[in-house]
Specification:
This protein has 422 residues and is of the alpha+beta class. The protein contains 13 helices and 15 strands.
């Protein structure tokens, strides 16, 4: 009996000891889990309050790095630019800047040219990177894309250089011709010849200045401020009348047709200048005794009907490489011909700006030796007694309803039955 009691007592004491030990182990484990370790700090760093919200609204690409150069936070723009790959900052100069800033706490800024991802053409991505400390352990990197700003600045520099060159040519010619007139004062025939040349150069200078003014106006003015319904028939008639003398000199026949009673909404002066430039180009770049056609029609489009005015010529045509640049300011397909016709290289740039500011676009179809078709597309303003849209009216392919500017069809086969204008 005493032996049994002793065994029971020993078992009770052992159970109490086991329970105490288990409770102490549980308390120790719980306290250890609550204590932050170096590993937990490294794997799950915490951004200062409000930083996450600020980074989400910044226009710049943002990247936050920890003390091990691991990316803690990165904006979607940073991934799009290729700054972050696989959780690491992929640009070595920026990574070195971050390490230097973490070491001494100084804010650093630098401009870099980075290879553009996926192009394979060696194009550079211009960026401005700024690094600053964020708390005691984190570093903030802000990257701004400067590519578009540099492109615009380059365009401005080219524009100033081109304007200077274009103005210098007629001004220099006038200076030389005036000296020639003075030297030939006793030769009436020479004076008359030089005076005629002076008149040509003065006209070229006047046209250049006027087109610079027109280009500045269409870039800065809002066409909707003076917008009104404009009849397309009147715009076509005005454009033809503007080029009647030049066309008559080269015995070029101008034909107008297509759908009548169409209206577009916009600034009448700008629209007339744009269509006039297209018709003038067609006449200037067409050989003698050919035809220039102007066809208007309505086409269905997403968001509302569009009015297409196509100007077709039988001129020299445009190569594929030139078609990509013909709407640039001062760009000429044939500089020699432009000098002969007095062209400034600004006409198509004006057309492009007018079309864009009116919610439309201008496109070109061309083949070398076969002529060109420029198509001006503008939103339809509607007209009284609008007829249902049909694809069997003059100027359209009966099967596809495609415009004269379509690359799948010859521009000469789709001209409307012409109304020959003397």
């Amino acid at each position: 009996m005493d032996v049994n009691a002793a065994v029971a007592a020993a078992a009770a004491i052992a159970g109490v000891c086991t329970g105490v030990i288990a409770m102490l182990a549980f308390r120790w484990s719980e306290r250890d889990q609550k204590r932050p370790t170096r590993t937990s700090l490294h794997m799950d760093p915490v951004l200062p309050p409000g930083v996450d919200t600020v980074l989400s609204v910044l226009r710049s690409s943002a990247v936050v790095l920890d003390e091990a150069d691991e990316v803690v936070k990165a904006s979607s723009a940073a991934y799009a630019l290729g700054l972050v790959r696989g959780g690491k900052l992929a640009v070595e100069p920026m990574l070195q800047m971050a390490r230097d800033t973490r070491r001494d706490g100084e804010i650093r800024q630098v401009e870099l040219d980075l290879p553009r991802r996926g192009t394979g053409r060696g194009e550079a991505l211009a960026v401005s990177a700024r690094v600053a400390p964020l708390g005691s352990r984190l570093v903030l990197l802000l990257v701004e894309d400067l590519t578009e700003a540099r492109r615009i600045e380059a365009v401005r520099r080219d524009f100033v250089a081109n304007v200077s060159h274009e103005l210098k040519t007629p001004v220099g010619a006038l200076s030389l011709l005036s000296e020639a007139v003075m030297d030939a004062f006793d030769d009436p025939e020479a004076v008359t010849r030089f005076a005629g040349r002076m008149q040509i150069e003065a006209t070229r200078l006047t046209n250049l200045v006027q087109e610079l003014i027109d280009l500045s106006r269409v870039q800065n003015d809002d066409p909707l401020d003076d917008a009104e319904p404009v009849r397309v028939d009147e715009l076509v008639a005005e454009a033809i009348d503007r080029c009647r003398h030049a066309a008559g000199t080269k015995q070029i026949t101008m034909a107008a047709g297509g759908t009548a009673d169409l209206h577009v909404h916009g600034n009448r002066g700008q629209l007339a200048a744009a269509l006039g430039n297209l018709v003038e180009n067609a006449v200037n770049y067409s050989p003698a005794r050919t035809r220039v056609g102007i066809a208007a029609r309505r086409v269905a489009a997403t968001g509302g009907d569009m009015i297409e005015v196509a100007v077709t010529d039988q001129g020299i045509g445009i190569s594929d490489k030139d078609k990509e640049r013909i709407f640039e300011r001062f760009y000429r397909v044939d500089p020699a011909r432009s000098r002969a016709t007095g062209g400034t290289g600004l006409g198509l740039a004006i057309v492009k700006h007018v079309a864009a500011s009116h919610g439309g676009q201008v496109t070109v179809w061309s083949a070398e030796g076969q002529g060109s078709t420029f198509t001006l597309r503008l939103p339809d303003a509607g007209s009284a007694g609008r007829r249902a849209h049909r694809t069997d009216r003059p100027g359209l392919d009966e099967e596809t309803g495609r415009s004269p500017a379509s690359p799948r069809t010859s521009p000469y086969e789709t001209l409307p039955a012409p109304e020959v204008l003397p």
